[in-house]
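Session log. Operator J.P. requested a structure for one protein chain; no other inputs attached. Running the standard single-chain path with token output.
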Amino acid sequence: MTAQSETDVVGPPVPEGAAFRRVLLKLSGEALLGDQPYGMSPDKVESLAAEVKRVHDRGVEAALVIGAGNIYRGMQATAEGMDRATADYAGMLATVLNCLTVQDALERMGAHTRVLSAITVSEVAEPYIRRRAIRHLEKGRIVIFAAGTGNPFFTTDTAAALRALEVGADAILMGKNGVDGVYDGDPAVDPDARFLPELTHLEAIERGLKVMDTTALTLCMDNGLPIYVFGLDDERTIERVVAGERIGTIISTPRRDA
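Structure written below.
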């Protein structure tokens, strides 16, 4: 047995009635849309924030990464032909808008939060520092990671995998819109698409399943980080997953014996 590294993250015990001690919730920007074509639905934001707070009230330490599809969808025409790096930076700024919106909803419900940004926006968010993020979680604050990884050419999926590993999360919880898990095809266009309750990270990569991008899946596979994929159409789905209920798809890699 080797001595524990000073960079290893030692988290709290698993709270009673929960399956995890610390989780990272990955939401797409579309999760904030509601019935709108783009932008944010106040009702949807309130509903998601209330569910995150209930999870946190269970004693589970919670961090969030939120995409920007709800804002970026409205500027797709403008983004066509834009330099890729410039477009990615615009997307990072869009995630900051979403994070501030969710932060405001959570704090109006009495939650204590911190937004940590990978790009400098010091007037509205703290800079991302790994040890500071862990300390906020230990202090009982909900941490919201903004601006992806801070680098172009990387998605918020990769940011979610990276931040989850950095803060020692037990799992990534990935809420999807319109689907209740992972399928072997697109159920919106293929009525014969088959639901997959379990698969490995490698299977998801080799089969080209559009769960997360390949970089994110590889990070999770190499570090044994499970991903729970489920739908957001029903209320309290996140709570049910946190409580250990078998919902959606589990993507994991069996551990090798040391």
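Operator note: The chain is about 35% helix and 15% strand.
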